[in-house]
Amino acid sequence: MTIYSFHIFDRHCNCIYNREYSHSSSDNNNNSTTVGIVNKNNDSNGSKLLFGILYSLKSMSSKLIDEETSPIPNALKSFTLGKFRIHYFESLTNLKFILITDINIDNLQHILWELYSNYYIKNCIQNSLSPIEFKISDDLKENELTGKINNHNFIHQTDQFLQSLSVFN
Prior knowledge:
single chain; alpha+beta; Beta-Lactamase
């Protein structure tokens, strides 16, 4: 069981955070994890396809249930594709938190809620130096990372939290 990647999409459908984890086995047959890539594949086709799948499934699931007669709202929480399970949480502000894991991991809604409520809000929203909107503007320099979460505390704390989970190995 393992966690492969963590994504955050904003309300404008942009991937504002992407963290991929590299898992390799060591000589002692213990799983060793090296920290992977941060924000390198935000604009890749993989991120766009992931958002497209989520958007389509959410749209289709909302059309299948009559919200007026159903006492429980229909919410997309996770789904399986091949050898991967995709866990999904959407905040009230339309931020989408996604964990891609091994198929054997069940429900990680509480982990996604923890990432949103304790790490994203603390390090990105309550930090007055961190942007709330991650739009790319024309007046910024070319070498500046824009449109992405670059908060060192957020990256470090979420890495520590995810790596401390028993399902991470």
